[in-house]
From TrEMBL:
Belongs to the AfsR/DnrI/RedD regulatory family. SUPFAM superfamilies: C-terminal effector domain of the bipartite response regulators (SSF46894), TPR-like (SSF48452). Signal peptide: none annotated. Keywords: DNA-binding, Transcription, Transcription regulation, Two-component regulatory system. The keyword Zinc does not apply. Residues 1-111 form the OmpR/PhoB-type domain. This is DNA-binding SARP family transcriptional activator. It comes from Kitasatospora viridis. Pfam families: BTAD, Trans_reg_C. Residues 1-111 bind DNA. The lineage of its organism: Bacteria, Bacillati, Actinomycetota, Actinomycetes, Kitasatosporales.
Length: 268
């Protein structure tokens, strides 16, 4: 069963879409998918659905949602009968391993790790990090780029996020940003500064207070022979930081600024 949460919620088995349209069962499935192969307690499900004010009927309601999810999951996972075997309308022969099971005081959604998009993202990101640390910049850039391509949009962009899902959202958003910055670093090490200018210009508009992205943009401009524009990027960022946050740029960005002012070769 394929599970994807780095974009719209997708739970699919043998090309059958198993995501319910009703908002709260969808939210339950989303939290189970975010913690796939781990137990999600009833308390966490209640917190996700109703925050700190669950109704008295919360337990029964959650059990109802689980039952609604189990039926299509069980049908999709059931092995097909050989053609012509058994009477028409009979249940499929054989037993499939359950994919949504009770576990302690909660429930667990089960599927092989290689069918989970977050696992693919984590694996590629770790490969990229190790290659970058070893100075294998081409391999790092490739792995980190493929990790980013696992994302199909924003985290669970078609599903309401309660308190528990927002925790996952924050963690994955930060990890995605980290991988992006590592990929930019690898590309700069490979001398791809001119190719990065358009992407970095867009990123600085999307992330107007993000110092690392602005630093990469300054470096790419500088290495492309556009020193005045690189200095302008620093000054624009500094004005925004002071005006909106009351802060000066960090030490690394100030050092890069000084290097560009002195026209000395250097990197972040």
């Amino acid at each position: 069963m394929e599970i994807r949460i780095l974009g719209p919620l997708t739970v699919r088995h043998r090309s059958v879409d198993l995501v319910p349209s009703a908002p709260k069962p969808r939210q339950v499935l989303a939290l189970l998918a975010a913690r796939v192969n781990q137990t999600v307690t009833v308390d966490d499900l209640a917190c996700e659905l109703w925050d700190q004010e669950p109704p008295r009927s919360a337990l029964n309601t959650i059990q109802t949602y689980i039952t609604q999810l189990r039926r299509p999951l069980a049908r999709a996972a059931a092995p097909s009968s050989p053609q012509g075997a058994g009477p028409q309308g009979a249940e499929p022969q054989g037993a499939a391993d359950p994919v949504l099971v009770m576990s302690g005081r909660g429930y667990q959604l089960r599927t092989p790790v290689d069918l989970i998009d977050t696992a693919s993202f984590d694996t590629l990101a770790e490969q990229g990090r190790q290659a970058l640390a070893a100075g294998q910049n081409a391999a790092a850039a490739d792995a980190l780029r493929r990790a980013l391509e696992v994302w199909r949009g924003e985290f669970l962009e078609d599903t309401r996020l309660g308190p528990m899902l927002r925790i996952h959202h924050t963690r994955l958003k930060e990890e995605r940003q980290r991988v992006l910055e590592q990929r930019l670093e690898a590309d700069l090490r490979l001398g791809r500064h001119a190719e990065l200018l358009g992407e970095l210009a867009g990123l600085t508009l999307l992330q107007p207070l993000q110092e690392n992205v602005h630093g990469f943009f300054m470096q790419a401009l500088w290495l492309s022979g556009r020193r005045p524009q690189a200095l302008d990027v620093f000054q624009s960022l500094r004005r925004r930081l002071v005006r909106q946050l009351g802060l000066e740029p960090g030490a690394r960005l100030r050092e890069l600024h000084h290097q560009i002012l002195g026209e000395e070769a250097g990197t972040l």
